[in-house]
Amino acid sequence: GAGVSQTPSNKVTEKGKYVELRCDPISGHTALYWYRQSLGQGPEFLIYFQGTGAADDSGLPNDRFFAVRPEGSVSTLKIQRTERGDSAVYLCASSLSSGGAGTGELFFGEGSRLTVL
Amino acid sequence: GESVGLHLPTLSVQEGDNSIINCAYSNSASDYFIWYKQESGKGPQFIIDIRSNMDKRQGQRVTVLLNKTVKHLSLQIAATQPGDSAVYFCAEGGGSYIPTFGRGTSLIVHP
Question: Which helix (H) or strand (E) holds A67?
Answer without folding.
Answer: strand A65-68
